[in-house]
Fold:
Amino acid sequence: MSRLRIHCFVLALATMATAQSDPRRPVEVKPPRTYKGRTIAQTMHYLGAPWLIRESREREEECSTLLECLGIERGDVVCDFGSGNGFYTLPICRLVGPDTKVLAVDIQKQMLTLLEKRAAREGLEGRVETILGTETDPKLPRGKVDLALLVDVYHELSHPEETLRALRDSLSSDGRIVLVEFRAEDPKVPIKKLHKMSKRQVLRELVPNGFRLVEQFDELPWQHVMFFGRAPDNDLSQQARQAMARASGATVGAPRSESAALGLVLARAFRLTGDDRYYDAACSCARRLVKSTHRDAHLLLFLTELDDLVEEPWLTDAIDDITGALLGGAGLERAAWPEWRAVRDANRRTQPADLVAPARAALDALDDEGRWTRDGTICVADYIVHMHQLCDLLEFALPR
Ligand SMILES: C[S@@+](CC[C@H](N)C(=O)[O-])C[C@H]1O[C@@H](n2cnc3c(N)ncnc32)[C@H](O)[C@@H]1O
Structure:
């Protein structure tokens, strides 16, 4: 055995001994195979790096449109999280200007080396701070990052909760993280299922980890772009969550028009909490309403609020059907559909007044004993109280 090998052997034994005897040594956390029902994808190996800078990428993914929608300004502190070989890092350097370094985090040293070489070739050396993170700690500075961009990365994180906590801590007061993920809802996107994510799944995972969806960009050919801000620490207390969960029952027995408003509240509650109970309640409310023959704009708004979350054809069919009926009734052409989308988007932005008022009206229609008076179906009085709490909460919690 050579001296070097003996040296290594002794060193390894010594390390093992220290490791076993040191009670402070962190226990190695085994990566979970799934997270909230989703199988976590394997990390893309650095040998695949050329694929990230392939010539067809701009045409396929419209990368410059993505960069534009990020709204990066000079001097912004931007983190390209899971930067790979820096396909996005380098253009971001040009957007933030020469006085601000872009933080590029990756867990593969080789990726960062490739990135440094590309930066040097493009005359951008010194404009990127490469950070070799670990699976549980991205080693980002606290409270500094204005925008953390995760393109095709989140679904690979072996420890989503730890990483999200660290990302949350790294954000400046109005800092945001942006998830760009291939759309799981769209079978035409030519990427393996394991490497795609639905909006519903993203919300399910991000919201309970202290993030609030603040903006979306739905115009890329293959990917969702979802912006999240840090939810305030006191956002939704356990008590409030319980109240909202109990409120789910309030749609049962509500008059149809008001059911749509309550359903809308539930769909929004899912967006706010990522809690599947709201999702399920909103879906069963929608299914019930769709079965009835009643078609109105309230129902359409409710269904379109759900349409990017539900991956089943019944909803799309119902939306088409109701849109056709409404547009036909109003003498409008089908081409007016984009306007309905705009109504939906506006509705999401101006939610407190638009959503809470009809929900309140629904509640006002109850008699003193907490019953829906119009169709006589009994609704437990408790729910009313909780619905009021829910409305107050939504009013407080929704982005303005
Ligand atoms: C599919 S590549 C995308 C690279 C780049 N964002 C792009 O769009 O060109 C995913 C990258 O995320 C990195 N990654 C995976 N898990 C990570 C983690 N926990 N922290 C930082 N980077 C990670 C991988 O090493 C890989 O370079």
The two ends are 70 Å apart (CA to CA). The pocket of S-adenosylmethionine is lined by residues 43-44, 52, 82-84, 87-88, 105-108, 111, 133, 135, 138, 151-153, 156-157, 163 (CB under 6 Å).
